[in-house]
Design a protein that fits this description.
Blueprint lengths: L11 H36 L5 H28 L8 E4 H16 L5 E3 L5 E4 L1 H17 L7 E9 L2 E8 L31 H11 L3 E8 L2 E9 L2
Parallel strand pairs: 2-4
Antiparallel strand pairs: 1-3, 4-5, 5-7, 6-7
Amino acid sequence: MSSYPTKPTFAGDSEERIKRFLATASHDLQSPLRHIAMYAELLLDDLEETLDGEQLQSLRMIMEKAQTAQRLTKALMSLAGGTPQVTPEEVDLQALAENVWGELTDETAVGEATLESNGLPSIRTDPALFGLVLRHLLTNALMYRSEAAPHVAIAAEREGTDWFIRISDNGAGIDPAYREQIFEPFWKLPKPGTVQGAGLGLTTAREFLTALGGDISLEHSDESGSRFIIRLPIA
């Protein structure tokens, strides 16, 4: 079984910056998200009898996504305050992975990308938080791609009291010198020709997994791609 690095201690300034960023952004998003969910619910109540099946499904999706985003922003605010709120439930990992993948491939328009994730188990975790962890990892796999069409494989196995979830890609790989830096706040992998994000994806993923009682590390990376491993407690 793989060994895991201890959670890095960020410099005081960086830690305060990320906390302020999370708290401010999450607070400012709460009101518009609440209104989106409220108006979607009102429209469902008023128009349910007049809409066709596809329109109803779209409206329900708007309401569900807004409610999920509300949960995430509340979790981010609690994370910034040092007391993350976790709501564990039984989660179909296969369905969650396919849902996140579908959203990302639609957003990025990478039509040739493929996901291999058959037979993933149900796990007990917070679906919103773990869904965001998957989103960050899959986004990186699509962003830091090689010349080949992106291919991501997700596999899970139980070892003792933990689930080990491995996410592999066929991307350009990560220099071993950056093995731990990739988890530092606001640090960005130096890759020419790629769209640079805020540098908080893997940092946030590790923080959420810590709140869920788990961890993440880069298990392997070379010119053929990278493999991250997530540890989550079974109970």
